[in-house]
Please model this.
Amino acid sequence: MNEVIPYGRHDLNDADIEAVVAVLRSEWLTQGQTVPRFEEALVSQCGARYAVAANSATSALHIACLALGLGPEDWLWTSPTTFVASANCALYCGAKVDFVAR
Model:
């Protein structure tokens, strides 16, 4: 029998499900008031000045590289055993990538 090691466990309750259904039934699947409310809650929770919601970790890493001003003269170091977005986010900004092991 093939057993799978769980990547992560979800902790969803009925309120979470209802919130998703409410967005799906609304006129706003990708924008609307839910996104700024989420960003404001994240700012409050983390004590940050700003928060930006992204559609994926790939987009979030790209935004982080842009915020850091990563460019053609810069290097980003990452692990060779990682998801490709860890390197691509630097390449999108014109930076160079080096894989570091150990």
